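Protocol step 4 of 5: obtain the predicted structure for the target chain.
Materials: sequence only (see below). No template structures provided, no constraints applied. The aim of this step is simply to have a reference model before the mutagenesis design in step 5. Sequence pasted as it appears in the construct record:
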Amino acid sequence: MKFEYQVKVLGRKGYRVSGDDHSNKLAEMVELSSNELGKEQWELISVFPSLMSGGAAAKLLATYKRTVK
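Step 4 output (structure tokens):
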């Protein structure tokens, strides 16, 4: 079985972290992206912070995979 991968940067333009908990906003971004890509058979396999600001994740890298047809 062969797979292909897609890596997306998840974050909002102009999004700034100033010590507040933005976990819900980041979770919404992951959920929205995963639901959109899931319709095209992409499966989320990992998420990790790509930009830290004030000790919190401001952007995430999400990696998706799907079977190559």
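Step 4 remarks: The chain has one helix and three strands. The longest strand covers residues 56-67.
Proceed to step 5.
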